YtbE
Amino acid sequence: MTAFIHPTTTLNNGVTMPVLGLGVFQVEEGQELVQAVKTAIRQGYRSIDTAAIYGNEASVGQGIREALQEGGLSREDLFVTSKVWNADLGYESTLAAYEASLAKLGLEYLDLYLIHWPVAGKYKEAWRALETLYKEGRVRAIGVSNFQIHHLEDILRDAEVKPMVNQVEFHPRLTQQELLKFCCEQGIQLEAWSPLMQGGLLEDPVLKEIAAKHGVSVAQVILRWDLQQGVVTIPKSTKAHRIAENADLFGFELTAGEMERISGLNKNQRIGPTRTTSTSNPPC
């Protein structure tokens, strides 16, 4: 097994969270996903991010269990995230959804549980449920996903527990600097989903030029750009060489000028929507 990917960030409740994790959106249940999770853990990943709506929690859990059975690690060494989907937002239904996710994963607790989308009229009751889970010690940290500033302000007005994480679409074509600044000021950790824009940035000439200068891939440049802004990142891959490459981010550093050039690629361009009221067909 390779060395642990050491860098972590400390959430506002004192829990440490790896700055790099494996995302599994659009990876179906089955042996490919089981193997990807095991490969990531062997490569030093300690964070795995899934969601109820992805329909793959059982395979994620199997991969985790098999990796732990190989020895050298305990459950406490891993940071596992899942999310409650729109159809289950509400107090009792969110509590039930959490139990369902635990059962599918085969785990006794989650390290992080998120509200997947800020569905109007539903997310505040769901947040009360997350607060209950947190206060009861059932989950180590709680947060939200796809929340913009006005959603966060709404939560913060009544919250007894401040969100610890906000996971949003974040990449060089969608830099969300106002949201990043707000989260930083509030002590809410920003986390990037689809940091590589589902591969849509890999041929960008600016990124290719910077990658060539450092002798790394475009993906590594983008992920390094995330980390240097203090943004947690969870690239997705099921290919062993990509999983390894995406983790190899700590032997180079982008200059201030390179960071500015990458941020200058912003077009406020999304691959997902700004909001959803659907209970099916997940966008992320």
About this structure: The longest helix spans residues 91-105. The domain at 16-263 is CATH 3.20.20.100 (TIM Barrel). The chain has one domain: 16-263.
